[in-house]
Each structure stands twice: as C-alpha cells, then as structure tokens.
Design brief:
Layout: H1 7-31, E1 36-41, E2 52-56, E3 60-67, H2 81-85, H3 99-113, E4 115-123, H4 129-134, H5 149-159, H6 162-169, E5 172-173
Parallel strand pairs: 3-4, 4-5
Antiparallel strand pairs: 1-2, 2-3
Helix pairs in contact: 5-6
C-alpha cells in the first residue's frame, strides 16, 4: 500500500501532530498559570520522553512522547506488545533498544531528577487486540493480564526486573 505522504510530508505531519499535543498543554498553562513552571518541546534532557515535557508548580514532571502514523487505521500496523519490545538491527548490525527500553530508561532518569506526575505515549495509531486486553480504562498496562510468559519475561528483562516494570507501568499511560 502506497502512502499519500512523501517522506518530508510524513515528517511535517508528525511535527504538526506533536505541535497540537504541545499546544493543548500550552492552552492549559494559559488558563491555569499557577499550575506550571515551564513547558518544553523537544526537551533533550528527557531522553526518549522528550516531545512535550512539563514541570508543574509542585515540581512534578509530566512527559509525553508523541508517535504519529500516516495511516493509523491500517489493519496490519497497530501498536502491539511485540512492537513495544522489538529490537531492530542498527547500522552496525547490533540490535537497537526497543521502544519500551528507551521509555523505561528515560522514565528512570526523569524519576531520579524530579517526582513524576505522569509519563505517556500519545499516538493516533490504534492498539491491537493483545494490547487492548492488558490496558486498563485509564491507559495503564496491567502486567498481571499479560498471560504470555515469554512476553512477561522480556518486559522484565528490558525494564530491569519485575519491580521496575511494575513501577513503570503504574505511571506510564498509553
């Protein structure tokens, strides 16, 4: 299936989507300035949770990673647990970190700097059936609902151990 987007068009559309998410926070800041110290877009110090980072007036961090799909309704491209855990080969041939590893590491670094209010991934892509089953209504993954032992062990390995995985999934919204 051919995309209607050029590579540059897809990139620009993703940036527009990220800007909308940032603008939502900026509007809230304008309505309630007492709740905010600052908002940053592309906050490199937040690692892989850098797209929109907010420091609330109570010194708690809110970080949003924005993921845009040019074809969010494509039946064969939803978010899956497998995609979150997937390690693709890098330029050197060695596997890169998975999305979950990147987000888990960045979460740990942010948590070491400030108290966490919320971290999340915001996307226009749909969740697969296997991901929907383990998501609670508030967007948190319930580890106890992941029945595949191989997936559970891989999650624990990528996030450090079971206790770190549980801590991460208590605060990471999808």
């Amino acid at each position: 299936m051919t995309s209607e987007f050029t590579r540059t068009g897809a990139r620009r559309s993703g940036d527009d989507y990220q800007d909308i998410i940032a603008l939502d926070e900026l509007v809230e800041m304008l309505k309630h300035p007492e709740r905010y110290k600052w908002i940053r877009v592309e906050a490199d110090e937040a690692g892989s949770l850098d797209d929109v980072v907010v420091l609330r007036s109570n010194d708690q961090i809110l970080a949003k990673q924005v993921k845009f799909s040019t074809d969010p309704d494509r039946y064969d491209d939803p978010w899956t647990l497998k995609k979150l855990l997937e390690k693709k080969p890098g330029k050197s041939g060695k596997p890169t970190k998975s999305l979950l590893e990147k987000w888990g590491s960045s979460f740990g670094n942010l948590r070491n700097q400030k108290s966490i209010n919320e971290v999340s991934v915001v996307s226009n892509r749909k969740a697969s059936a296997d991901l929907q089953v383990v998501l609670s209504p508030n967007g948190l993954i319930d580890l106890d609902k992941i029945e595949d032992p191989i997936v559970r062990v891989e999650i624990f390995n990528q996030l450090g151990d079971e206790s770190k995985a549980r801590e991460f999934f208590l605060q990471f919204h999808f």
